[in-house]
Specification:
5-stranded mixed β-sheet; 32% helix; 600 residues; 17 strands; binds CU-O-CU linkage; alpha+beta; disordered N terminus; 5-stranded antiparallel β-sheet
Length: 600
């Protein structure tokens, strides 16, 4: 007993020293305990649990209570590797430089005076007694509201470019963070806020300040942006208020103005569907993007982009890919090379409909979060403590962390509720799953699989296979007969890995599972597993020679647990996966392979 206690004490002291040190590195000046209280215990990074467990244990030892020490430490550190220090993502305000549009056109969006020369304050929540701003669907607002918004917008458009609250300066904020005009703090890598877990928080913060500035300009602290309710049939056209006055942007695709129904999965090729079919397809697609394809935070929010070149990733969440990207493209003018304004990131925020589009994107985040009972998206300090700079309604530069934007009630705005027609639009298989499997097996045994587009092995090697035509592969499932509980905890993920888009071009492909005829099947059918979209990104323009320019291949991750259940493939050893390039866009793309993983 004596020696065990002695050993424990020395070990504990050692661990406390180590942890205390790394905790200081992690977040200077933070109050770890207070911040963690509201989080789900299960999700707290292991290191914090170890700290508090170790403190508790120290108390126990000092108080002479013993036993259970080793087990509590083991339980705490069991799953996640220890972190030794956290580097946060943030822009380096001294670095604003020229950048490139999606089509390599040089653009310059930097402020007239460096933001690093301004005084900065840390973000403060608005007073809890200030009025709630209620964001309403754009197709439901009345004349009085439109007049008010119109007034605010024209004042904003008249502010001089020196004023950071002016319309163009705000549009250019989007350009700065989208095209990588800032380097990261402590790194030579560019900071970009699309195609990763920065997407939702950054845009939330952007339109939060935009809304408050508009309100301030007309002295109305209840002013709220409208949202473009494109997830429900009544909102599936460009809202009519955006066709007049200051809301009008001439640079839009004329053939997509009302009454044309939106194609929320647009891929540059007109779907050719009639209104009713298009609406039904849209609703089914929403279900996929919000529910069955979005069961884990990474799938919905995007990949964990971290500081430095090593930490960069390219994995947009479901909603970011579409409807988000798709509608940007759909709205922008077909007569411009990059479908400006909405179709190109550098110019998108010049179109007033951008803000209504992003209000709905933001609303989708709140709904998704509510569907998962408000569990935290991520607890990684790299996400929570990463920060950006914006100007508030008083033209004051504010430093705001992602953790500050996670509770919209604290930000004093909310969304008026409307129907969610997609919520129960769980798609059905296009043909009964048993029949489909028999057909697929028959094809296999008839050796049809040896046709060039079929592949026995889902690993295409380092060279990869070109996606110039449909690719079919049989993919093995490492785990079968998982219990219901296991299936809930661990999402089965279809990974299309090593996607290499060799030329900097737009590219899109769809993924199907156990599909018999992909030419007649779309997102309205259960076999549809998801979609991949590569946007033109431009060669990265860097400030100094030696700044990093590495480009990585990307992976597509699709959650398929629910799909497999509906296709009655849950017990199967293999599934057949079909990749369908869209609009002839796959010629310059190779894929290294397809496999199954599991995500907690
Ligand atoms: Cu930053 Cu909708 O794009």
């Amino acid at each position: 007993m004596g020696s065990k206690l002695w050993f424990s004490t020395v070990l504990l002291a050692f661990i406390l020293l180590g942890l205390g040190f790394s905790a200081t590195l992690l977040r200077p000046g933070s109050h770890i305990d207070g911040e963690l209280r509201e989080l789900d215990e299960q999700k707290i990074p292991a290191i914090y649990i170890s700290i508090s467990a170790a403190f508790k244990q120290l108390k126990n030892i000092v108080l002479g209570v013993s036993g259970g020490w080793f087990s509590s430490i083991n339980a705490a550190t069991g799953s996640e590797p220890k972190k030794t220090g956290v580097i946060l993502l943030a822009p380096n305000l001294t670095t604003c430089h020229r950048s490139l549009s999606d089509a390599d056109k040089p653009v310059y969006c930097c402020p007239p005076k460096r933001e690093s020369e301004e005084s900065v304050i840390d973000f403060q929540f608005p007073s809890p007694s200030s009025p709630m701003r209620i964001r309403r669907p754009a197709h439901l607002v009345d004349e009085e509201y439109i007049a008010k918004y119109q007034k605010a917008l024209s004042i904003m458009k008249q502010l001089s470019y020196e004023d950071p609250r002016s319309y163009l300066r705000q549009a250019n904020m989007h350009c700065i963070y989208c095209t990588g005009a800032y380097n990261q703090e402590n790194s030579t890598s560019l900071l970009k806020i699309h195609r990763s877990w920065l997407f939702f928080p950054w845009h939330r913060i952007m339109i939060y300040f935009h809304e408050r500035i508009l309100g301030k300009l007309i002295g109305d602290d209840t002013f709220a942006l409208p949202y473009w309710n494109w997830d429900a049939p009544p909102g599936m056209v460009i809202p009519s208020m955006y066709l007049n006055g200051s809301f009008l942007d001439k640079d839009r695709d004329n053939s997509h103005l009302p009454p044309q129904v939106t194609d929320i999965n647009f891929d540059y090729v007109e779907s050719g569907l009639g209104s009713e079919d298009q609406i039904a397809t849209n609703v089914a697609f929403m279900y996929h993007q919000m529910v069955s394809g979005a069961k884990k935070p990474e799938l919905f929010m995007g990949c964990k982009y971290k500081a430095g070149e090593e930490g960069s990733c390219d994995g947009p969440g479901t909603i970011e890919l579409a409807p988000h990207n798709a509608l940007h493209t759909w709205v922008g003018s077909n007569l411009h090379p990059e479908r400006e304004n909405m179709g190109a990131f550098y110019s998108a925020a010049r179109d007033p409909v951008f803000y209504a589009h992003h209000a709905n994107i933001d609303r989708m985040w709140t709904i998704w979060k509510r569907l998962r009972r408000n569990r935290p998206e991520f607890v990684d300090p790299e996400w929570l403590d990463s920060y950006f700079y914006f100007h508030d309604e008083n033209a004051q530069l504010v430093r705001i962390k992602i953790r500050d934007c996670l509770d919209i009630t604290k930000l004093r705005y909310s969304y008026e509720e409307v129907d969610l027609p997609w919520l129960n639009a769980r798609p059905k298989p296009s043909i009964p799953p048993k029949i489909a499997r028999n057909i697929l097996k028959m094809r296999e045994s008839q050796n049809t699989m040896q046709l060039s587009s079929y592949s026995w092995s889902p690993d295409f090697g380092q060279e990869g296979r070109t996606l110039d035509t449909t690719i079919r592969a049989k993919v093995q499932r490492p785990k079968r007969q998982r219990s219901k509980k296991e299936r809930e905890e661990e999402e089965e993920i279809l990974v299309v890995y090593g996607i290499d888009v060799k030329k900097d071009v737009y590219m899109k492909f769809d993924v199907y599972v156990n599909v018999v005829d992909e030419t007649t099947t779309g997102p309205e059918s259960r076999e549809f597993a998801g979609t991949y979209v590569n946007m033109r990104r431009g060669v990265r323009l860097v400030m100094n020679k030696g700044d990093s320019t590495m480009k990585t291949k990307s992976n597509l991750k699709l959650g398929i647990s629910e799909l497999l259940e509906d296709l009655e493939a849950d017990e199967d050893e293999n599934i057949w996966v079909t990749l369908v390039p869209r609009g002839g866009t796959g010629v310059n793309t190779t894929i290294e392979g397809i496999r199954i993983e599991y995500m907690r």
